[in-house]
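Researcher: I'd like a candidate sequence for this fold, 160 residues long. If you have to choose between options at a position, lean toward the conservative one.
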């Protein structure tokens, strides 16, 4: 009976590795291809500007500092204007992302999504995405095409 137990395990591990697809190559998109309500974007952009819009301490920051547990937890949010040769868009950087978004640097945003804020598009990277600082860009940013300045309105279409 002990000889029959390893056999299904071998089939499961062998079959699982054969049927499991490998990692797919990222498809890089340009800023002008971004649309409201989409996600999973990978793009290379240059940071043009960064300004902090919110910086506050967490609720339990006093308890952490008294207990000697280290530094206080902070919530930081910065709006950064990023772009490539096709246009620009506002990127919402949160917490540790704020430190990476230094004006003049080139970053790769992986698994980025489009959030809507007051009717305009904002680019964001959540916990499932990644920001990587890369070598300086070889493109000139087209600053006159800011997609965050375009206002969108949700319209419900009633079918008859």
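Model: Candidate sequence:
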């Amino acid at each position: 009976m002990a000889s029959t137990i390893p056999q299904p395990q071998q089939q499961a591990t062998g079959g699982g590795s054969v049927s499991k697809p490998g990692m797919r190559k990222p498809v890089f998109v340009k800023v002008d291809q971004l649309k409201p309500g989409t996600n999973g974007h990978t793009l290379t952009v240059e940071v043009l500007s960064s300004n902090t819009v919110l910086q506050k301490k967490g609720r339990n920051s006093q308890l952490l500092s008294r207990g000697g547990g280290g530094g206080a937890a902070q919530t930081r949010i910065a709006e950064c204007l990023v772009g490539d040769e096709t246009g620009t868009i506002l990127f919402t950087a949160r917490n540790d992302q704020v430190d990476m978004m230094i004006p003049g640097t080139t970053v790769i945003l992986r698994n980025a999504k489009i959030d809507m804020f007051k009717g305009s598009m904002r680019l964001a990277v959540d916990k499932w995405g990644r920001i990587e600082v890369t070598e300086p860009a070889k493109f000139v940013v087209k600053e006159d095409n800011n997609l965050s300045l375009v206002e969108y309105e949700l319209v419900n279409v009633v079918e008859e």
